[in-house]
Amino acid sequence: MTTTLLTNIGTLISGDIANPVLSKDALLLEDGKIKQIGTAVEMQAIKPDARIDCAGTTLTPGLLDSHCHPVFGDYTPRQMQVGFLESEVHGGVTTFISAGEPHLPGRPKDRAGAKALAILGAKSYANFRPGGAKVIGGSIILEKGLTREDFAEMAEAGVRTVGEVGLGSVKDPKEAAEMLAWAREFGMISMMHTGGTSIPGSTSVTADMVIRAGVDIAAHVNGGPTAIPLQEVEKLVRETDKILEIVHCGNPKVACETLKLCLEDGCLERVIIGNDAPSGTGVIPLGILRVINHLASFTVLKPEQALCLPTGNTARVHKLNCGLIEPGRDADLVIMDAPMGSVGEDALSAIKAGDIPAVSMVLVDGRVVLTKSRNTPPTERMPEVQS
Fold it and tell me: Which CATH code of 3.20.20.140, 3.30.499.10, 3.20.190.10, 3.20.20.150 fits the domain covering 63-285?
């Protein structure tokens, strides 16, 4: 049994959109899980194997990137870059969720090949952690000919997600609906490309198409990169219960307008955040933090609420045991603060001001994988690991 005690937490973000801030300043980890939440006084008798002094800064659950397009390993032929996943860890991301692997050179588009690629992707990323982060890989891209038995086989092999509907040969909502019903039967979560076409072979997707297909997630509702008209976004917000994904590689104006609609409608629990990289927009290591900043600085959304969108919300949608500060959850954590020179005094006020917070430590399953981000600005208050 290995224990770690985090103390001197200035602000503890829960990941729960209904209760974003916890009035506690200490956290006990045991064997990679959160064991206890409390105060330094309550935990003063504990003799942990290691201590982390958070230096009065902000502790949040690890961020989840709900929309990534990996291939294999930590290389993307889309932008010919190595280490793009590990770079996102330097932006506080501890879990990536594949929206499909469409950038694989020579990607197979027949039934057997599509199924094999999904299973291989799921199994390879189950054994590979870039920068220490987890990758939910191998999202199946719907191709003609897939059967109910194929979905049963894929689910058994570890495939958890249906990638963006529209990237493969199945584009008609009616045809997709039958396959998505099979996917749901075997516990898979599905998403559908929303907005204008993004790559050759994909198509523009309207709100009605998303509704008729019966997917769980309206992927990049603010466009990937071209967005649907705002009245169609409003239809998805107010006439459905779809999960609404806002991404960095999309339309920033529609991102904020979507969030405003969700604030008005009182449905923030339906909003998640993805990067949608690599894409033609590029590889953006700080994409998740930048969307958090956009939403919190250009709308009335509170920064502590914004931090819950890519943590607790995404973990709930994808049925993952992370994203929340509560006993039994995976100890995937980020320590952050206001960067040097910011008008903000801490991470939350910096985010509200539009400044990227300084990531100073990242833990995955209770293990420190990063002690200083190479991508975010530095901070004056640094956490310290004490044996």
Answer: 3.20.20.140
